[in-house]
C-alpha cells in the first residue's frame, strides 16, 4: 500500500489502460507555471511527476529529516533503557521494545528512500532495494500495530483477571516472534511483485520507477492489488482500533469506575495508581496512532472511488503531508514514554548525560547508566518504608544507613552489612 506513494501512481486511475510499460508518455505538472507539460498531449506515464519549487523541496526535506532523526534516536534509546536495566524488563516493556524496533526500522530503512522517490519521481536505489524497502514498510507497520494489540490484550488480562498467571519471558518472546512472522506473511507480496523499470524521457534523461506488477496487471490496474490494499487497511487499522478501543474501555471502567469494598491498604492504592499510569500512557499511544494514520487511509479510500482527485495541482504536497503524519507516528512513542513514565524519563536523562548532551555538570552529579546502574540509582533515590523507618541503601559502599523514627534526634547510624 505504501508503494503507490501518492499521486505518482494513483494518477493512472484517470488514464486509459497502459498495456505496454515501455510505450508510455510523460506528463509533468509545472508547479511554478501551473500547467501540465506533455510532449504529445495525448498520454500519461505510469507515474505523474509533480515538480515542486526548490524551496518547498528544502522545506519537506527538513521536515522528513527531523522526523527520521527523532524517531531513530528515540526508539533506540527506549530499547537501550529496557535492555540495560533489569528492573525495566517487564512484559509490557518487552512489547515496547518490539514496538521500538519496528518504528526504528521503518524510519531508517524506508522513510528516507520513499520520500526521495516521492519528491523526485525517480528511484535510484536499485532493483533489490525496491523490493526490500516496500517489504520493510509493510512489515514494520504491521509489527507495530500487532504489538499495540498485544499490549492492550496483556493489560486487559492482567487487570480484568488478576489471579491468572502473567506471561513469562519465554511466552512474551514467542508472541513477539509470532508478530514478526505474521507481519512477514502480510508483507510478502511486496517482496514478490515489486519491480523496477527505466523510462527514457523526451530530453534524453532516464527516470527509474519502483512499482508493483501483479499477475493480473500493473499497479492501479490490478484487482488483486486493490483487494490486498483493502485487506491491509482492515488488518492494520480498523481491526486494531476496534480491538484496542474495546479492551481499554473495559480496563478504564475497571480502574476508574469500580469501587472496592472495605478499606484499601496503601500498597493496594499504589498498585492501582501504577496500573492507571501504564494504561493512560498506552491509551495516548493508541490515540496518537489512530490520528496519525487516519488521513492516510482516508486518502486511499477517496482516491480509489474518486480517481480524478489525483489531478489536483497540489495533490503531491497534500499526500506528502499525509505520508509525513503517518510516518511521524514512529517518533511520538518515545516522547510519550518520556513524558508519562518516570522510569523512562530517568533513563532518557541518563542517556543524554552519558553522551554529554546536557553538559559536563550532569556527568559529575549523576552516575553513568550501565547494565545495572539505573537499578541501583532508583533504589538509592527511593527509600523503602519498613516498620516506620526509612532505609536508604547506598550502592557504592557495603553500608546501610537507617534514619531514626520521627521525634528522635536526626542522627544516622551506620550498620555493617555482611558481604
Automatic annotation (TrEMBL):
<keyword id="KW-1133">Transmembrane helix</keyword>
<keyword id="KW-0807">Transducer</keyword>
<feature type="domain" description="G-protein coupled receptors family 1 profile">
    <location>
        <begin position="74"/>
        <end position="337"/>
    </location>
</feature>
<feature type="transmembrane region" description="Helical">
    <location>
        <begin position="281"/>
        <end position="302"/>
    </location>
</feature>
<dbReference type="GO" id="GO:0004995">
    <property type="term" value="F:tachykinin receptor activity"/>
</dbReference>
<keyword id="KW-0675">Receptor</keyword>
<dbReference type="GO" id="GO:0005886">
    <property type="term" value="C:plasma membrane"/>
</dbReference>
<feature type="transmembrane region" description="Helical">
    <location>
        <begin position="95"/>
        <end position="120"/>
    </location>
</feature>
<keyword id="KW-0472">Membrane</keyword>
<dbReference type="InterPro" id="IPR001681">
    <property type="entry name" value="Neurokn_rcpt"/>
</dbReference>
<keyword id="KW-0297">G-protein coupled receptor</keyword>
<dbReference type="InterPro" id="IPR017452">
    <property type="entry name" value="GPCR_Rhodpsn_7TM"/>
</dbReference>
<feature type="transmembrane region" description="Helical">
    <location>
        <begin position="58"/>
        <end position="83"/>
    </location>
</feature>
<feature type="transmembrane region" description="Helical">
    <location>
        <begin position="172"/>
        <end position="194"/>
    </location>
</feature>
<protein>
    <submittedName>
        <fullName>Tachykinin-like peptides receptor 99D isoform X1</fullName>
    </submittedName>
</protein>
<comment type="similarity">
    <text>Belongs to the G-protein coupled receptor 1 family.</text>
</comment>
<feature type="transmembrane region" description="Helical">
    <location>
        <begin position="126"/>
        <end position="151"/>
    </location>
</feature>
<feature type="transmembrane region" description="Helical">
    <location>
        <begin position="322"/>
        <end position="340"/>
    </location>
</feature>
<feature type="transmembrane region" description="Helical">
    <location>
        <begin position="226"/>
        <end position="249"/>
    </location>
</feature>
<keyword id="KW-1003">Cell membrane</keyword>
<dbReference type="Pfam" id="PF00001">
    <property type="entry name" value="7tm_1"/>
</dbReference>
<dbReference type="InterPro" id="IPR000276">
    <property type="entry name" value="GPCR_Rhodpsn"/>
</dbReference>
<keyword id="KW-0812">Transmembrane</keyword>
